[in-house]
Amino acid sequence: MEKVDLLKNYGVDVNSSLEFWGDTSSYFDALKEFRDSLDDKIKDLEYYKDNEDFNNYGILAHSTKSEAKYLGFMKDAEVFLQHEMAGKESNKVFINNDFKTLKETGKRIKDLLDSCFSDTDSNGSDSKKIIIADDSNIMLNFIEKNITGDYEIIRANNGLEAINKIEENKIYAILLDLNMPNMNGFQVLDYMKEKELFDKIPVIIITGDDTEETIKKAFTYPIIDVLNKPFKEENIKRILGVIENFYEKC
User: Fold this and answer.
1) What b/e string do you get for 96-114 counting C-beta neighbours within 10 Å, with b at 16 or more?
2) Per-residue pLDDT tens for 192-227?
């Protein structure tokens, strides 16, 4: 409980986060994942800023904001939200002037989580290889923790990584986010269509964009399902059943 009190004293909405994660073990694992990825996120944001790549800047600020909210860092999430909007608007002046605030926000979160944890754990599994492609390490961790059984999880943080993993491995299934930097999910779907892989590999879309236009566009490809964020453990179990049904019909 000491860790919980430390987080609450900082202003973290732990209670709401536990409603999402379900138990403290999953929640703290997600906190560790977020802590370990923060430095790289800030470095990538700075790279996009310096190169005036505002599209990828906005995408990464969005995913960081979402992760912060999932973990209860509501006030800090507002900082990343402002930079997400600035990226979408290509607001170079705001991004440059306020980037110090964003870096300080990331450092405060990391310092707090460093006070809570020391080492990280890693898990592994075997056999049927499932690619999870999402630019959010928090989401990757959440899905991986809730996929049980005879599966091996392969992570990808963008569409290009996902394609490389497809080419390097015999893939059992793909859980694919649509909004990713460098190469998005629709570009991965185009690749799979070109290579005629949909009959061999079931694809489930995982997305926070549930607009009618996006969902309709996703279903123009022969995907087998769409999982809207945020979702829970039972949704992942259902998806595993859908994947198994795909192979039973083959």
Assistant:
1) eeebeebeebbeebbebbe
2) 999 999 999 999 999 998 899 999 999 999 999 999
Strand partners, 225: 204
Give the chain's domains with CATH numbers. Answer: 2-116 (1.20.120), 128-249 (3.40.50.2300)
Which of 46-50, 62-66, 243-247 is predicted least confidently? Answer: 243-247
- Cα separation, 97 vs 88, whole angstroms: 16
CA distance 106 to 77: 10
Predicted pLDDT of residue 56 = 97
C-alpha–C-alpha distance, residues 78 and 74, integer Å: 7
User: What are the tokens at 218?
Assistant: 């996703």
